[in-house]
Structures
1.
Amino acid sequence: MLSGSRPMSTRYTEGLLGHRTYGEYDRLLLLEQMCDPGTIRVLEHVPMAPDWHCAEVGAGTGGMARWLAERCPDGQVTATDLDTHFLDSAPRPGNLRVSQQDVTTTDFPTASLDLVHARAVLTHLPAPEQIVQRMTHWLKPGGWLVIEDPTYLPAEGSPYPDFARLLTACEKLLAQTNGTDSSWARRIPAAMAAAGLTDLKMSAELSACGRDKTEDQYWRQCFIQATPALLASGLITEPQIRRAISHLDQPAFSDAGWLMVSCRARKNHQ
Ligand SMILES: C[S@@+](CC[C@H](N)C(=O)[O-])C[C@H]1O[C@@H](n2cnc3c(N)ncnc32)[C@H](O)[C@@H]1O
């Protein structure tokens, strides 16, 4: 599973989070249930118009793309992904187009979009700063870029060392196999500023493990899906994984999963 010299797109699609990996569809649906309400709160701050043209990059199972399509009934939403079969198999409104695209190599026409949104995508990609630059070119003057990616609180602060060890092992595994960089979330505002975007706002939503049924289901699904690769990597042992997951069954358990950092900024009217 090590990333080696495999091309970027193959590294993702054939890796732990590839859409053909057993359980990935369920994990992405849970991710949507967990994160869409927070993303909608962020997008409610963007002054969207019904005729906007939007791109949902790395759309996964398409929850946010469908929401954008409802908000822009007279416009058009393009949902892109490396692998579109989850998007193709769901019913969609007429103003929602699905396009199989690798964001590291494929561009939208310059100044063609009012809004570009990507959640939990750039963290997995090399040179995310360059992608922010390219996405900025796709925006019309006055258009908005909204980027969201997760990061983790320091493991040492957790009152549940077993649970924190498992989270850290998952973070390391994704770094080794997918090249995922969870420190990227903190660099998003600087990348947006360097791309010339203005009116930058930043917020974050904490995923609280042990406090919410959907979030617990999400994390359980992540851990179960990652177990074979975690064991093969030697990052953690099976009893350690079992002890960590068992916390999710204990009513008093509560710990931080990740912080989903959201940044929105606007391209200047020239
Ligand atoms: C962790 S999932 C997040 C899905 C969705 N954005 C969400 O938050 O619910 C990452 C998504 O990005 C897609 N992806 C990964 N690399 C990509 C690339 N280079 N170009 C386009 N999509 C990509 C994956 O196929 C996957 O659907």
2.
Amino acid sequence: MTEKILNGIVSKYECEAKKNQSIAPYTSFRIGGCVDFMLFPQSTEALAGACCELKEKGIRFMVMGNGSNLLFPDHGYRGVVVVTTELKNITVNGNIITAECGASLTKLAGSALENSLTGFEFAYGIPGSVGGAVYMNAGAYVSEVSEVLKSCTCFDTNTCEILTLDNADCDFSYRNSIFEKSGNRYVILDAVFELSKGDKDVIRAQMNEFMSKRREKQPLEYPSAGSAFKRAPGYFTAKLIDDAGLKGFCIGGAQVSTKHAGFIINAGGATADDVTSLMKHIQKTVKEKFGVDIEGEIRIVE
Ligand SMILES: Cc1cc2nc3c(=O)[nH]c(=O)nc-3n(C[C@H](O)[C@H](O)[C@H](O)COP(=O)(O)OP(=O)(O)OC[C@H]3O[C@@H](n4cnc5c(N)ncnc54)[C@H](O)[C@@H]3O)c2cc1C
């Protein structure tokens, strides 16, 4: 029954499909089991149309961008993972950049540079998509998406309508937004960013400096999902983890990076259970030693 509906969606909308696929290669952690069905919409209309049908037919689904902030369980996902990575158009009009949800942040930063636009340098090197970045208000080096996002077009899964949310509607806070708070009610189709005219050489130098810092400080040679924990107010979380003596600590194939204690890496063959057990161990140890609660930043799929 479900398969018939899914085949109907594929033939009605512009979507590629994969069945019984391991999700691991689609995530930066390289972890996760088999997904029943994956859909790759080829246009934002197809993304909205497919999500509308899935919702109306009561088929469980979730939307994923580059999979760089997600941990899928070892048993995979029963339902449909809708992947946005084919939706990567970026258009520039004066100081306004409009990007489809699957566009890479690094490419977007490159477009801003080409057009001498400043404000997006911070996102250069974040391995995510526009949709994922808006969803979690991605940020780095004291800047974040909320500072440059003007509006975004979304599909509302409650009403099956397409609507525009302005920056203020997105209810942004540190690594959070209406998109997460509403329990995935909205699918982001595209986003509009307002940048400022700047000096190309200065923008390029800033981007290169951020990239060098990433290469120097982050364990980019290993699969991970970036910082495993949010910043605890008043603390540097990586320092707390380091001071708790946890650098290099392993559970199975999951390890606290020896290069950056805020990262959990897949040192080889890590399972989702290894990662979640390690996260719990870190949280417990930091709480016992310093009395500080640290909250996970990685989205754990159930
Ligand atoms: C090496 C490394 C470095 C990183 N550095 C940073 C950093 O400096 N700063 C930072 O903030 N993050 C960082 N990250 C984490 C991650 O790259 C960002 O959070 C990124 O914005 C996630 O985008 P994504 O496309 O990969 O999202 P995904 O991981 O695919 O999804 C994340 C969440 O967004 C939702 N989502 C994705 N697309 C849509 C959409 N179109 N509509 C609705 N919901 C959607 C998903 O359902 C999921 O809940 C890093 C990760 C790695 C691996």
3.
Amino acid sequence: MSEARRVDLRSDTVTHPTPAMRQAMVNAELGDDVLGDDPTAKRLEAMAAERLGKEAALIVPSGTMANLISLLVYARRGDEVIVGSQAHVLQVEVGGAAGLGGVLLRAAHNDERGRMDLDEVRSMIRPPAQYGPRTAAIFMENTHNLCNGSPLSASYTAQVAAIAHEAGAALHIDGARIFNAAVAQETTPAELARDADSASFCLSKGLSCPIGSVLTGSEEYIQQARRIRRTVGGGMRQVGVIAAAGIVALDEMVDRLADDHVNARLLAEGLSKIPGINIDPALVQTNLVFCTTEGIDGNELVSRLRERGVLSSGSPQRLRMVTHYGIERADVEYTVEAVREVVASLS
Ligand SMILES: Cc1ncc(COP(=O)(O)O)c(C=O)c1O
């Protein structure tokens, strides 16, 4: 095995823009988007709104900012938002909801496929009494990152939406990887977002753009989101440079996500045959592969794999490997072999 080989499976965010994206970025027609006249940003936003089946869209710097903006659209200080116990917005966004928005996040248990128990969610809705906080919104995630990258169905989303709407609350989808969810279920992102009031997606993950996320929703929601984007410093002047890559991504990079899913499943199946690695390949439906180890020092495994050029993320207790543009079947085979050898040497 070549020492110089590098298989970077830490995240799909490590992807670089394609040659077509770089070309589009060079040639992008630009304006000042904070003044509302960047034509390329407007084109991307129109495309994004159409793909998600919403009235309008707004480009923002990151998925984290998309979540923060959406929280601030729906919730006032002291309001509550129901999220899954493994939600990105709860686990790995530095407490921004509380820190910056004064918003309480209340967690309903997520199962290994990213679903919240609907009876539990229903029971968490606050009655409009004098004492409790107001339930402003429910946030769900699709695909669900920390729950094995699971894709959630449109019918599940409809049930969550019904609970939210009955309570006068909104439903937002953190759809950082909603295109993966759509491809995995052979449906469209619009279908998956149909019953939600708003949905975001990331350009900078499997779609391979260098930067950027997009919020989608009603005209009124996007108008408010635009004001809040300004508040949190997310207005980006000639953002057409980034939006141009996003347009290429929506045109050219969605269908190929199926290849990432095939590679992820192959990786999961290979890993499942290695004694000491625990993984259920059936849980791998998209491009995220999680596994745990038994009887092997996870720290040692991660660092020995790194020496062989295989980079993973997560924690030594629960490794994550992510397939993406640039990772081929041969890289997966190399990775499985590297894990097999390292595990054998550590057992
Ligand atoms: C589900 C989900 N939401 C939000 C984010 C945040 O995106 P960003 O890293 O662009 O802030 C991520 C990033 O991995 C994610 O997986």
4.
Amino acid sequence: MPQVIVMVGDPLPGGIEDVAAEVAGAFGLSPVSGRMLSPDRAMELTLDEDGDAGEIADTLRQALPEIDVAVLSTEGRRKKVLLADMDATMVVGETIDELAAALGKEAQVSAITERAMRGEIDFEAALDERVAMLAGLDASEIDRVAEGLTYSPGAEMLVQTMAAHGARCVLVSGGFDRVTGVVRARLGFHSDRANHLEVNDARLTGTARKPVVDAGTKLATLRETAMAAGVTLADCLAIGDGANDQPMIAAAGLGIAYRAKPALRAATEVQINHTDLRAALWFQGYADDEIVGGMT
Ligand SMILES: [Mg+2]
């Protein structure tokens, strides 16, 4: 099966195919055909033979620092399952930090969130510590935060295009179900899985229901979703930004680090660092005339 080089830019600079051909040539490969997936935004070049995808992509990234590059097999390129993280992936920012802001505790909470997402501290302990700081918060604040979220550019198009082409789309989050339910409905995910904050007399108790949704839960959700859909992990796309996304991203046939924390970025071959979530569609070979959904 041949490989393709997909390049995504905002916009793509002129002559980029010559740079790609030069890099491919250094690996003894040459492009045999090219296709624009989106005018001035995304193009793919099909190579004559297979090379070391990771090495070629790294070299291209060095040659084209503002461009998102993926080197992928054309076999099974369109994925049949999407597992997506929510905070800092489908939506901008971390919802737990916004909840803490309502209590004037954003600085303390966000410092812990940052370390947890970098993988520097244990996820569950970090979650428990931050949820405890939310004790007493009016539970309706969660709905206010959920309604005020900023969606990542391309999020709706990614979910709706994959769903329209028959993929099962699941939102899986170490955040909270009262938020993921809103995001699921807004973006068109089939289901969602997240942590549940305990409420008493309309106020948060400061505890999350056990067992918590962590990295292992995300991986298990990927496996369960693939099995229920009757496909293998090779047919799955997993995307996220944090350390707790790493196991599901490593297990999926197409694992994408989206504007990710350093540890995840270092461990993940396919990355979106400069452009938006539509890149995950272009990587799969979707052209603009196949993409559905609004501008979100
Ligand atoms: Mg995240």
